[in-house]
Write a structure and sequence with these properties.
It is built from two helices and two strands; from the N terminus they run H-E-H-E. Helix 2 links the parallel strand 1 and strand 2. The chain is of the alpha+beta class. It has a two-stranded parallel sheet. The termini are far apart.
Length: 54
């Protein structure tokens, strides 16, 4: 398991601020469908992040 360090987190922040950090988004769900979002995650067939929109 990876252990984050302050220098590593600062580097990630710099990449994100520069628009160079790209994360794959598998699906988005409105807050009202949070149960579906968790079902998607639990299916273990998700490649990328599941995003819940408030």
């Amino acid at each position: 398991m990876a252990q984050p360090s302050v220098p590593d987190l600062n580097h990630l922040r710099e990449l994100a601020d520069a628009g160079k950090l790209h994360l794959p988004i598998a699906a988005t769900f409105p807050l009202a469908e949070v149960k579906k979002a968790f079902e998607q995650i639990e299916s273990k067939h998700t490649t990328g992040k599941v995003v819940i929109i408030p």
